[in-house]
Amino acid sequence: MRKPGTLIFFCGKMGVGKSTKAISLAKEYNAILLSEDEWLEAVYPEEIKVFDDYIKYSARLKPLLKKHVQKLLNSGLSVVMDFPGNTPNQRAWFKEIFSEYEIPHKLYYLEASDQLCLKQIEQRRKINPSRVNFDTEKVFHQVNRYFQPPTEQEGFNIQIVRRDDI
């Protein structure tokens, strides 16, 4: 029987560097990288204007991907999912993916100050002008109202990465 790949996913405030870490880990693990932003843009172009739109379309996307990701993992490929696991409900979806087949996993929890996250969001807006309406301090605070760090009781293999202010 083939050894399954590892599912790698993330938790961290908006702007902490989850996507950057995902790219790095995908290279390190020679893994498939799946980006929620890329999928949402491809499947629902021009439909995400505000945070509530993101919530709506993200919820539609997840059932489509679950079995696909499980098949990749069960074929022996590791998968890095650049999808947020910032609430217990979001993390429960990842648990559904790996627990059905006892697939190894790692949850990378990236910690940083709000100041650093906001600085990085500002830089991201400059690099990617299409995000100028979403990558704002207002959205940062709106999104992070829901943020809940992972706990040991949730049963994840947690790797904590602390980002110091630059």
From TrEMBL:
Query: Pfam families, alphabetically?
Result: AAA_33 (PF13671)
Q: Name one GO biological process term.
A: cell division
Q: Which InterPro entries match?
A: P-loop_NTPase
Annotated keywords: Cell cycle, Cell division
What Gene3D superfamilies does the database record attribute to this sequence? P-loop containing nucleotide triphosphate hydrolases
Q: What is this protein called?
A: Cell division protein ZipA
